[in-house]
Design goal:
- With 172 residues, this protein is of the alpha+beta class.
- Helix content is 30%, strand content 22%.
- It has 1 helix and 8 strands, in the order H-E-E-E-E-E-E-E-E.
């Protein structure tokens, strides 16, 4: 009678594999979480910069003032420096920073992800027909639970250019 050879894992081989897998996951998961949070912050800051660039180009294209302001309902500007609830771009022909009859809402952005805040020093940024934001330049602070070290500062200068810096702002 010939002995049958059995295929499979021994208990020691299985325990060794689980131990190695546990060590690898303990190293990989925190790094993966940081990567996801960094990518989320970069995407959100790019979305804000895209809105400012869009408003600037609309101001030049329409040859009139265009305003970006925070909104809660997508139809009116919120008189708040909290931009986390969403923001909108509208043609502001009279330059008063409010949507009046005859002024067109060009585009509305939804609220940003929960757990992230977007705060500014101003309640609006208005671009002139030449694309300048003179008198409306500001720095917005995009923060998540990690605090100031990973925050983004989104700056709109007087020339109307929007850009971002990482870790150069303080979070509330």
């Amino acid at each position: 009678m010939t002995a049958m050879r059995q295929n499979g894992f021994t208990l020691i081989e299985l325990m060794t594999t689980v131990a190695v897998l546990g060590v690898l996951l303990s190293v990989a998961i925190p790094s993966y979480r940081t990567m996801v949070l960094n990518n989320r912050m970069a995407a959100q800051s790019n979305q804000v910069i895209a809105a400012f660039n869009y408003a600037r180009s609309e101001a030049v294209k329409r040859a009139t003032r265009t305003t970006v302001c925070p909104t809660e309902d997508g139809a009116t500007c919120a008189a708040s420096t909290n931009w986390s609830t969403g923001w909108m771009v509208f043609s502001d022909t009279d330059g008063d920073g409010t949507v009046d009859a005859g002024e067109t809402i060009v585009r509305v952005w939804p609220a940003i992800d929960s757990g992230t805040t977007l705060n500014a020093g101003r309640v609006r940024i208005t671009y002139t027909a030449l694309g300048f934001a003179t008198g409306f330049n500001d720095t917005l602070r995009l923060c998540d639970a990690r605090g100031s070290t990973d925050a983004r500062a989104i700056t709109v200068n007087a020339m109307g250019r929007a850009y971002t810096n990482k870790g150069t702002t303080t979070c509330p």
